[in-house]
Amino acid sequence: MKAILQRVASASVTVDAQLISSIGKGILVFAAVAPDDTAKEIESMVTKVLRMKMWPDEQGATFTLLASTKKGSKPDFHGAAGGEKARELYDHFVEKVRDMYEREKVKDGVFQAMMQVNLQNDGPVTLEIQTNPTTTRPKSNRTSEVKEETKSEFQIPAELLE
After folding, report:
1. How far is CA 10 from CA 59, 113, 127, 149, 162, in A?
2. Which range is most confident: 29-38, 78-87, 152-161?
């Protein structure tokens, strides 16, 4: 499973000119299910998403964006799961986030629909996280810091509780 997280001031999802959902300040998650994903990957991703540090720390330090692209210019969708299994796992992901966060604050789009997603970035802060990365990257000091941060208890930023 793969997720792209964007810290936003606001975001909304529209399908066929109908507003499906919208949020104020928070995290917009684009979630994708891979063919071999199971409930185990979903549980892992939910934990990663909810524990990911996306807000400035006590010293005001924020994030930089370091992009990595693969060669070629045509997107390849062979790594995506299809059919009913993908829908079930996606629905399971959304439900687990709702169970572990505040249900009324977790909004959803329409799975496999062509959506117009409007958002206003807050930062910008954008992170890509995976449950089973296909490649390993060299370890760095920042990597170990992130691992330590994800092991800490999840706390909701005060500004999101308003």
Report:
1. 25, 21, 17, 25, 14
2. 29-38
